[in-house]
Amino acid sequence: MKYKQYATIYVENLPHLLTYGVPDDLSIEEGDYVSAPIQSRHQFGIVVHISSHTELSPQKIKPLLNNEQSIAKTDKVVELSILLGQYYNQEWYQIMLQFYQHMATPGPKTEFLILAKDHPIQALTPVQKKLLTYCKQHQPCSIASLFENGFNEKTIQILIEKQCLIASAKSRPNLQLVQLNKHQQAFIDQFSLQSFHTQLLWGATGSGKTECFSHLIATFSELEQALILVPEIGLVAPTAQKIAMRLNEEVLTYHSAMSEKEKNQVRNHLNIGTHRVVVATRSGIFLRLPYLKLIIIDEEHDSSYQQQTKWLYHARDVAIWRAKTLNIPILLASATPSLSSYHNVQNQKFSVFRIRQKALATHDPIIHLTDLSKEKVIKGFATSTIEAIYTTLKNNQHVMVFINRRGYARRYQCSSCAWISLCPNCSSSLVYHQKPFGLQCHHCAYRDLPPSSCPECHSTELEAIGYGTQQIESFLDEQFQCPILRFDQDHTQPDVIDEHIQKLGDHAPSIIVGTQMISKGYDFRRIGLVIFHQADLSLYAHDPFSPEKFIQLFFQVLGRSARFENEKSTIVIQTRKIENNWISGLKKHDIDTLYEHLLHDRNTAKLPPFTFQAKITAKAKDEQKALQYLLNWKKHPNPFCTWVGPAPCVLQKKSGYYQFQCHITALSRKALIQAISIIKHHTPRKNHHSLLTQIALDPQES
Question: Which are the contacts of 118, defined by CB distance < 8 A and separation ≥ 6?
Fold first, then answer.
């Protein structure tokens, strides 16, 4: 059968594009989300191209079934997808699929309607004018009451589209905003909501950045929306609750732990404009918000914004492109900005507003370095640190112990022959756990029971080496006989962290033991002492980005203390490398100088943000196959790029696959993209199980 139009569509996970006929009664355009028959199933795909002819035999052409959704024009999604495709060297339609996957399917309509200010009355039918008069007399007006009075859904929808009526979940309540201090107010006064610009709100921990968010959104009309991204699921609820309390209205939440039904309800509310604010994790950047006025990226430095599978995007960068496409402002907020954002401020690509003072605190923490090589050490604690814990608890204050290793001990080994329990699937040792008892791999989740004797020399002298949160918790419980709260992935679900923290306010003096989970933006009260149990560990990773992460982590953990009025705290950094420049620099509490040192080191090493970088990873169960794939590319050098590698990844074997990587560095993004394009052109569109390849632009780790 011949058709007047033919559509080429992209279906996820298929290695090539497909061609279909467009029935005369079906209206489509490039970027639409359509359903098509594939063998005996119906699949969904993106319309990539429409033409009036095809080289294929008409007898082999099947018709498209339906146009499921069309957002090609409404939100500039095609334009944005093309820009992102160029930036990340991806096909635009593969990116656009992300937006469709986070769109609503038809659901319940809004409950209330509010009369818009200065609504037009010209070109309205008598029925439409009558409906507006009724709404004016019954504000807020429920849709149910309109139906009861003889108005139909079509009339209501037309008036919403004409912006005479505004959909709302409920009537607009009175605001409950707090009085801003002079620094917060100065930020509000200078921030413009009129057009695209990127501003960094560099505010000290506890400086009241969330209060600033609330005041910005409070200026919105009923028909304007804000998207707030946070890096962790555990931060979604507390952030939404704070904003909701100030605006006195419901704030939506969106994250991966929600069911598909719950997600779709959120998408629906946003799609029809019933809610003005949504707080979401990384994937929320693809939500459809037809009235989007402002994007806020909280804790913009956090590596959780980097997607690690499929399309390797960074949510912050996607957000900037989205804001630019829509000509709306984007606000990046952090107490410890990413080095790239810091560099962009220096180059005047971003503007910056600095709030150095905490909103409620009146005292800065005292930072003390403890040299473990000069003191008696018990379970990794210096005797002076143990004495400080006693004193803090006696003063009715809480103690926070930061140790970024979960489990009981980082490895299990033989004292006689030095045999170490290794994961059979990964090139890593198994971590010893007491609850649940056993050995675990933190990379592939392999589990085993500890052997009663060494499998190599049959000695029974086996021991757990190193410290983890479980062992520290056990030691402190025996030593101090006080409540111990452990925050790590094994023990605490992200969505209940804030609930536990709130209970600490009136709690008896307690000790909090946690991983980097406790460094996120939570409001702990009565923290009198913060201890970095093993401050050195983060610095000696095989990663040029580790000093930046270490500095950010330190200031974030430090910021959990002395957040409220009259609270005093001491920070103890335990180290065996007290002469290390990064360690000694922390004592001065001067993040600007530390960042300048970081930039100097990166510039000397020709690393981002002074260069542009991509990481190519090859994984295979056959070690030589993964290595050879990268070696083949190194035979074809690009004069505008520098290749480093191939070399084994830090974790050379993971889940049964050997991993090798190459780094490509260029002085311009254009040169880097050209090099990557050549590689992708000669790489199979779909990974085969025998060889998996991955290309990451702007990698966040080595």
Answer: none
SS3 call for 9: strand
Sign of the four-CA dihedral 322, 324, 329, 335:
positive
Q: How many angstroms separate the CA atoms of 610 and 608, rounded?
A: 5
Q: How many domains does the chain have?
A: 6
Q: Which of 26, 55, 73 is the last residue of a domain?
A: 73
The answer to whether residue 606 is domain-embedded is no
Residue 219 half-sphere exposure, CB side, CA atoms within 13 Å?
12
Looking at the domain assignment, is residue 88 inside a domain? no
Model pTM score: 0.84
The answer to whether residue 420 is domain-embedded is yes
d(CA 645, CA 660) in angstroms, rounded, equals: 9
Q: What is the pLDDT of residues 302-353, one digit of tens each?
A: 999 998 777 789 999 999 999 999 999 999 999 999 999 999 999 999 999 9
The domain that holds 333 is classified in CATH as: 3.40.50.300
Q: Which of 169, 174, 168 is nearest to 114 (CA)?
A: 168
Nearest residue to 247 via CA among 290, 210, 217, 269: 217
Whole-angstrom Cα distance, residue 529 to residue 535? 15
Tally of CB atoms within 10 A around 698: 20
Q: Mark whether 455 and 479 lie in a shared domain.
A: no
